[in-house]
Specification:
single chain, 173 residues, mainly beta, eight-stranded antiparallel β-barrel, two-stranded antiparallel ribbon, 2 helices, 12% helix, globular
């Protein structure tokens, strides 16, 4: 029997989101994400960027839009064949291919333009490393919140949407 993928429960101020992580397809990314989960990094942070027909992003800032210091940047595993479809989790990054640290996003629609298309920086894509198993209705609630500008950032929820906790779910074997 194949070993089960790890699952993480994101408890948010709008409800729970159960996430499955694809450790075979994105081992570096999953190990990185789980290290932040185990350290309690995400607890108390917010979804700081919400664009209804795109994605909801979190994992890096508190409600005052202050960045929580990440660890090191990781290798981009966007070549893993996974696509940025509605309900998948991917790593946020800068224009630098291998710059992802702790911020992640959940695709609220199919975002094919984020998929890996080639070796050039602009074609490299964003690494999908998980998917929402349960709680997509919570993601849909989050994507529908009113947003505005705050401390130089746009698309910020007017009422903060908190990640109360992120924890590894112990699976029955």
């Amino acid at each position: 029997m194949a070993e089960q993928n790890p699952q993480v429960m994101l408890e948010t101020s709008m409800g729970n989101i159960n996430i499955e992580l694809f450790k075979e397809k994105a081992p570096i990314t999953v190990r990185n994400f789980l290290s932040y989960v185990k350290d309690g990094h995400y607890n108390g942070l917010i979804f700081h960027r919400v664009i209804k027909d795109f994605m909801v992003q979190g994992g890096g800032m508190n409600e005052n839009m202050e960045v929580k210091k990440p660890k090191f940047a990781i290798k981009n595993e966007a070549t893993n064949g996974l696509l940025n479809k509605r309900g998948t989790l991917a790593m946020a990054r800068t224009s630098v291919v291998d710059s992802a640290t702790c911020q992640f996003f959940i695709n609220t629609v199919d975002n094919a333009f984020l998929d890996h298309k080639g070796k050039r920086d602009e074609d490299y894509g964003y690494c999908v490393f998980g998917q929402v198993l349960e709680g997509m209705e919570v993601v849909d609630q989050i994507r529908g919140v009113k947003t505005g500008n705050k401390n130089g950032h746009s698309d910020v929820p007017v009422e903060p949407v908190f990640i109360i906790s992120a924890r590894l779910i112990e699976l029955e074997v």
